[in-house]
Amino acid sequence: MTRGGGRPGPRPGGESDARRHERLGARERYTRREFVHGGEGSASDSDAGPRWLFPLPELSAEKLPEWMRDAAFTGYLAARGFLPELLADLGVAGGQGPEHLVFGDMVFTPEERPVFWTQNVWRGARLLPAPSIGQAARALRDVQRNWWPHPVRLARRAALVAEKLPKVSAREHVFGVPAPVAPLGSFTLWDETALIAAAECSSPFPDGHVRFVEDRISAPSRAYLKLWEALTLAGALPRPGELCLDLGSCPGGWTWVLASCGARVLSIDRAPIEERIAAMPEVEYCQGSGFGLEPGLAGGPGARVDWLCSDMACYPARLLELVTRWLDADACRNFVCTLKCQGEEDRATIRAFAAIPGSRVLHLSHNKHELTWMLVR
Questions:
Q1: Helix axes 17-24, 133-141, angle to 10 degrees
Q2: What is the three-class DSSP state of 243?
Q3: Partners of 362 in the beta sheet?
Q4: What does pLDDT average to over the chain?
Q5: What does residue 159 show for φ and ψ, rounded to 5 degrees?
Q6: Which of 208, 237, 266 is a domain's end point?
Q7: pLDDT tens-digit profile of 180-189?
Q8: Which residues are part of the catalytic machinery?
Q9: Edge-to-edge strands of the sheet including 305-310?
């Protein structure tokens, strides 16, 4: 029995995976639209695909480097637009070398290395055979339950694989709710015969991107999302009554976050913050420079600050001097600071921040050309 133009209808039980894949044809190739949050960075459905920094490798799975074929390796998803910075972090250049391979916005290396300009790190990644959509889904389910696709090419095929896996919610996150704890793996199709999958990733959020239920009314600027994300990833919030410093606070987004947690906030900037933020009962605004505040004097002589937060526009080296003074004086317990990166000369300073015991430097999904340093104790 046929339909319409005489084409055969689906067989009883539905269309086969192979037939469905064939029908989708060239539309499968390269587009990432379905899995890019909010449409940012999405590609067209044309064969041209997204404009990667390097051409996609034309290697079959059997021709991949030995360290990818025969053992576990590490994958790094570059922060959006910062693949060159990630490559510099890794100390490699070009699309391929003896110990690295660039695949779209991802870089694979034999071993994990300390990097900052990454949105998500795939740990213990492996190459798995996936000669069909069903076999790809079974291979992933044999490892664990939850997976998130990151298509670089064959995005429609990746979507069909994802349809056969347990559904993973990508709903917006409510600030104050702890980050997810269930393991979330990531996978990408290398070609029509194999996939790359990592059961363990550095971020509990899909592709390392934290989407919040935003407050578009109370917050004075979108900068508050950076602090929301940092505190969510740190797994800690300022508690009512704790003393917080917000250095470089104008127009008041971070002050608003801290005060909304119930903390007492000393908000400092040369420019005034919004009047309604300054009027919050938990907020004391002081016009001046955050660099002029002496450790041990913020909450009165000998008082210890609970949180020092800085989104100041300054060179990272100058911020490091300020942080070092506070650490040496043991005058603050927790720190969340934005590192406004200016160029090559900042790399040593970023490493110095990362070397502070117990701290971490990362690129938040709400960061731009900046990193965030956190020390939460």
A1: 120
A2: strand
A3: 372
A4: 88
A5: -65, -40
A6: 208
A7: 999 999 999 9
A8: 340
A9: 283-287, 264-269, 243-247, 305-310, 332-340, 370-375, 360-362
**Any domain includes 216:** no
Looking at the whole model, is its pTM more than 0.85? Answer: yes
Q: What is the pLDDT of residue 50?
A: 67
What is the H or E stretch that residue 126 is in? Answer: strand 118-129
CATH number at residue 363: 3.40.50.150
* pLDDT tens sequence across 76-109: 999 999 999 999 999 999 999 999 999 999 999 9
The residue whose two tokens read 């994802």 is 162
Per-residue three-class SS string for 248-299: CCCCCHHHHHHHHCCCEEEEEECCCCCHHHHCCCCEEEEECCHHHCCCCCEC
Residue 3 pLDDT > 60, yes or no? no
Backbone phi, psi, residue 42, to 5°: -70, 150
Return d(Cα 211, Cα 206) in angstroms, integer: 10
User: Containing domain of residue 264, as a range?
Assistant: 224-375
Residue 25 lies in a domain: yes
The encoded tokens of residue 8 equal: 């055969």
Q: How far apart are CA 351 and CA 287, in angstroms?
A: 32
- What are the b/e assignments for 36-54, b being 16+ CB within 10 Å? bbeeeeebebeeebbebee
Provide the domain count of the chain. Answer: 2
